[in-house]
Each structure stands twice: as C-alpha cells, then as structure tokens.
Amino acid sequence: MITVKNVSRRGFLEGMFSAGAFVLATRYLPEDAQAATPLDTAETVDSSAWHPSVYLGFEPNGSVIIVAHRSEMGTGIRTALPMVVAEELGADWSKVKIQQAIGYKKYGDQNTDGSNSIRSFYQPMRVAGATARTMLINAAASKWSVPASECQAKDGQIVHAASGKKAGFGELVALASSQPVPAPADLKFKAPADYTIVGKNIAVTDQDDILKGKGTFGQDAKVPGMVYASIERCPVLGGTLKSVDDSEAKSVKGVIGTEKIAAFKPPAYMFQALGGVAVIADNTWAAMQGRKKLKVDWDLGAHASYDTTAYKKELQNTVRQPGTPERNVGDVDKAFAGATKTHEAEYWVPHLAHAPMEPPAAVAEFKDGKVTAWTSTQNPQAVQQAVSAALGIKQEDVVCNVTLLGGGFGRKSKPDYVVEAAMLSKQVGKPVKVVWSREDDVHFDYFHFPAAMYIKAALDEKGKPTAWLGRSCYPPMLQPGLRNGGLGSMGWVDVPFDIPNFRAENGKAEGHVRIGWLRSVANIPHAFAVHSFIDELAAMANEDRVQYLLGALGQDRIIELGGRGGRGGPSLYPLDTARTRRVLEAVAEQSNWGKKKSGGGKGYGVAVHRSFFSYIATVVEVEVDNGKLRIPRVDTVVDAGLVVHPDRVKAQFEGAAVFGAGLAMSGEITAANGRIVQSNFNNYTVARMDEAPMETHVSIIGTDKPPAGVGEPGVPPMAPAICNAIFAATGKRIRELPIRKQLA
Amino acid sequence: MIQLKINGTSRQFDGDPDMPLLWYLRDVVDLTGTKYGCGIAQCGACTVHVDGKALRSCQTSMKTLAGKSVTTIEGLAPKADHPLQKAWRETNVLQCGYCQAGQIMQAAALLKDKPHPTDKDIDNAMSGNICRCGTYQRIRAAIKLAASGKAAKA
Q1: Is the peptide bond before A30 cis (omega within 30 degrees of 0)?
Q2: Contact A216 B32 (CB under 8 A)
Q3: Is the pLDDT assigned to residue A652 strictly greater than 90?
C-alpha cells in the first residue's frame, strides 16, 4: 500500500462549488470540508489512497470509492448519484464501491426529502468526477509526455489513442494526486449524448442483498450487548405521565426493567421524543409483552378534546371567510362583482399517515459522552442535531450510521425515535434498540395535515375562468401554533391557468396532533381541489377535458411566483406553462384520449400538475361497479428534466400511482378525545394488489432541462384524475377524500 | 424444549412458547430477512414457509412448531437463484425492498400450488402482502416471468 499526500481539499472544494452550468443554492453545500474526520472507518473515501473530494476516493488497486450521502428508501439514489460521479470520471462501474455516508455536514445537505437529491447534487457529483478525471489525464499525459488533450478517460483507464498507451486509474493515483487542481471554470463536462452510465438502467446496488434477505434496515440493526425497548406513550399530544405501576411488566420473561422518558418541551414538539415509559427486555417480543402489562395514568393535557369531525367543520368555516393573501394578481373582487356567471366548491382532504412498511426503529449507544446510532433515517444530520440537543452533547459527538430505509415518505426525516434510543441508552448504560410497533407508527405519526379548501371562479361566456379565488386552511407542521407558508403554499399559489384575476389565501388553524410533511406535502390536498375544480368548470362548459385544459393554460408563458410555490431557484426552474402543455398533449396521445368514451360505469379522468419543478400529466381509467372502484390503467407523462436512471424514475411514478390511488380511495386518519382512532393496516387501509392500478404506463420527456424532482410529483395528479374519471363514469362529483364510502 | 428446523438446520427453543416465530427468527437466530410490518397478519412482510406452506410468522407461535421445518428468504434457494429471485432481478421489482422477502415467499408458495397462475390467482394469493412503494405491477410481471420459465439472470 502506497500512501499519497492529499491535495489541498480546501482549494478543491472551493472550486467545486463556485461554478457550473447549474448553480446550486449554497445551503446545500459542504461548509466544513477541511474538518478532521475522527468518525471515518476503514475502506472509506477519507481513508483511501487519494481522495480529491469528500465524495470520491481511489485505491492503487483500481477501486473507486464513491460516497452516497443521501438515504436509500427505495428511489435508487444510492446508485444514481454515484452513477453521475462515475460517468464524469470515466470509471469502470464494476470497480465502483459505494460507501454510505454517516451524518456529517461536510457532505452538504443530507435530508433525503423534497425530491431533491439529483436536483441539488447532480452538478456537485459531476464536478467531483470531472476534477478527478482531469487530474488523472494530466498525470498520464505528463508520464507519457503527450498532450493531455489527446488523452481520454474510459472504463477506469486513461487512454492515449495515438500511441496506444493505457494506464488504469490505480496506477495513476500517486501521480494524479500531485497534479494541480483544475480551476472550476476550466472543467470540461461530458455531453449528455456521450453518456455511457447516466441514462442506463443499472441494477440498484442493494438489489442482490435484499433479494437474499441480507440488506440491513433500521429494524435489523444489532450491536453487541444491545437491549430492546418498546415504549408506551401518552395517547394525546403533550400529555404527561402521572404514575406508572410496572410490577406486572417486570414479571414478564425476558423483561429487564422499565425506564421513564421525559416528555418533550412544549410547545414545539419538533423532533423531540414524545416521552413515556419504556419496557427494556432481551428481545423485542418480551419488550412488547411487558409493555402491555404496564398500568399507566396520564395527565392528558390541552389536546384531549381533539375530534376530527368538529375540526373539519372549524376548518370549513375558516375557508368561508377571507384569509391571508399568499398571492394576488389583478382584482378578483372587482371581477366577481362584474361577473355574469360564477362557480364555487369546497373540498376536503383528511389526516393521512405515512405508514412506511418498516416502522421507525433505531439502535443507539451512549458511551463516554458520545452517541453512536444505527438507524433508518432520511436525515442523519437532523439525528445529530436532535440527539445532541436532547442529551446536551455536541453535534459532532453524535455519529449517525444510516441503514437502508424500509420506506420513508417524509416520516423518517423526523428523528424522534433515534432521540428515544439515545436517551434510553444513556439511562440504562447499554446500547438500546427502540422498535416502534405498527400501532405506534399509526398512533404517533407526524400526520399529514387535513385541509379544507374553497375555490370560486368567475367565467366568461365560453366558460373560461376570468377570476379565481382559492382559500385553503390546514394546521402547521412541527409546532401547534406556527403560521403556514412556504411549503404549505405548494399547489395553491402556482396554479398554471391563464387567469387575469387570481388570489390564493390561507386561513389559520391550530394543530392538535403532530403534523409533518408526507410525500408531495401540500400538493396532495391542493392538487385535488384545483384539478377537480377545473374539471368541474370543463364539465359546465361541456367541453372535452384535454381541450378545455389546453385553453385554460392559454399561451405558453413563464408565470412569476416571486419565489413562492416550493423551495428552489425560480431562475433555474421557472414555472413554464409550455412544459405543462407538452406533458398534457403527450399524455393525451399516449392514452389515446381522443378515442376514449366515458359512461356506463367506465370513465377517464385527467390532471396535470407541476410539483418539485417537474411537470406531470396523468390519465386514469376507472370502472365503477356496485360501489366498487377499479383502476385498470394509468398513463403518466413526466417532464422532470434530465433523468439519471430512467427505470428508477419510471418506478417512482408507478409507485406514486399506487400511493396516490391508495390515499384517494381509503386514506383517512381520524381522532376522537385527542386520540388517533386507527391503529394498523386493518383500519388504516392502503392500496393492495387487487385495488391498486392494474398497469401504469410512464413516459419521460423534456430531458434537455435541468434535473427536477421525481420521488413526489407523481402523487398529486392521482386523486383528482381518479375523481374526474369517476365523474365521467357516473356523474358523481367527489369533493371529499377518501372516496371509498361515497360510491356505495 | 421445542425442536424444529430452520433452513435445514436443527434448532432447539426453550423460551416463551407464545413467542411468535417472527421474533425468534429476527432476535434470536439473527435471520433478519423476515420482516416485521404489522404484527397482526395484515401486511405479509413476515411470510415464511412452514413445511412448505406460506404462513405469517408474526402469528405463528413457537409452541406450534415442534418437529416443523421452517424456510425463510435466506433459505429459499442456496444461491439465491430461485426462479422468482431471478425474475425479481430481471424485472427490477424492488424499491425500498422491505416487503419483498415476504412477497417472494408468498409468490413461491403460489407457484408451487399453481405453476401458471392467472391474474385472478395472483390477486388472490398476493393481496395479503402490502407494498407501500407500490411495486405491484412489477411483482405481477415477475411472477408471470418466473412461471414462464424464462427468467434468465442468475
């Protein structure tokens, strides 16, 4: 093993992120590139012979190590981002080793959320690969005394075609590491037309392990000396422990003892532990059995009267009154005053639960004032922050190892369960594994907010809207009293239709359970209301839906949102209605829309929605028979800009069709007396194979644009497209989700 | 003392006879390919074979397993080359992968019973297995591919 002195990583990284075709928001980028790395273990980028980037390392044997700093929850990101590095580098994919990053701010943003991984890291990954490739080429050129411009990187080698000379990356490591770091402006990137890795459907890196039952998820993590914990929590948010009798629990075979966990500090529950009583045992089953024997008395606190039936009325009353304007164009009031024809409607979407297949789980070991965690988290840096705050230790003294995630959907961005494990480990002096049961997961989720919505439009003589007033009301995320904005405005302020008078308003509501974002966030209720309402207008105009939508979109144009409508840069990702139009036209063609005839229990519905900067048009075919809904076919056209892994992108939209259909058909969480009524998959029902769309056909267009989101944008069009199809099939208009109980 | 076989290996169990097989596999034997998803036989993530029949291990207590032979995903095929595993690879079925061991074990029992299942057979056999990622259409395609005998990749 030769050792190689590293180039100045500071210089390299400053260069990495200062230029590029797609300039990225600085908040996503590493701040601490030069920090000592006491947390690294063997066979990592940081311990490799040459590591010109935090994401990329080389060994003399030809191995290329690439860091996956985002979490794998089924999108294929652990494969896709390394593919981008390997592409620019000219690597041999079979020699690429992927290292899952611990939580560490030097990697930049690690919150695998917001359909953001490729969007924010495509360019940094290209820079990492291109910089190393340039240095390898310069090394070979100097060794062979040939012009660098005559050398190429290909399949893990540098090749000089004229002389036939070749050298593997491994041979060049020592020499490459002493080459000057190229200025970012001098980097040459491959043309997408020359890509040999990006755009290919490479098997995801974890496929084989998972198919053998060997992939390690958070629920599978195990460390020596570990004990298991199952936690009884107050059924009402913010309730506190009055007393506990644990004598029977302790008599259960395998139970070691019980531990109290302090309740969170109100009012912001954020990512704090909820508090409760933990039963500690030598296996999961014993911990769960012991927990059943606890006799706990709670002070239920302020939210004990929460009832979702009454709450729905409260939110509906709010949207019947003026709210706070979020976006205002023209003069809606004047337009309504002068209108000869108007239409108004109210919509409702209830609480939803994430219910990833893997309930939350974490192993944590508190030792010598430091915490090491192994967990399925979407955001290991949030683990560091939340655990350090709870235990009063430094963030850098929290090491968060990221396992595979058995689904996330936003739930696992919130690391309360890791905080529980860390607190318990400190209390019992051993590594502790906290296992959430499915009932825990359903009762104590960060629920998607319920939303009441009201829309009113004024119509011209052809039935096209001339004014649009939308009012939406839903409780805030992460803290009962916060005001909504930002994330909450998605899908509400960025309506793409060409309407001269437009006002989007937001009403205030208090939260009474934990509220958090779920796959596509506010787009779920807002897309449901907006695209149902426009379908109602089309029905009133008695016009073909696609033709009506094309007319409502109007001339191709960029809509100014003033930074609203989702995080990210409007300069890079403007709301471009030409792209909305193109996906709509494409889905009409793909689904053979013009030849479809609805009626007699069979119907076709369409919705086109932009979220996370991707444009999605979806056509759904439904059959309604004796109150039973079937979805034989879904067609979706995706414009998500550049696509790294087409098959995994298609898979995201196939999955989103199922996810969206499931929540539309039966997704509903209710509360009574402050407690969540549902508990498991028997009463919080999700789509099963015999109810899910039978086939979903996905096409990808528009790949010449910068990469946008793919994990979430497939969900929002589903509910309105299904309900529009139901209307086409039966004449029944669904304005409240879920659908199930309304078709009988 | 309960004697049973797990993936062909003889085991002895003297713990709580009411302990479900799921937790014995996961916490005691360290075979974590069998997953916990619901604990009430609603999701199928814990599906294993007991004497060749697909069962929900979360609802199968250890006291019912004396003399029985249990097969988990780790023991389905020695080289992970069961026709379904090959078909799963070829179809790129999995997303997060958490439910897939249960899906494959359920599908393996289906194919044993009905080597050429119809869509209706697949619906009936597989609707007890939830996939929140929504890979159902690829699961269906992979089952058909395996049934066709044309799944090529090892």
Answers
A1: no
A2: yes
A3: yes
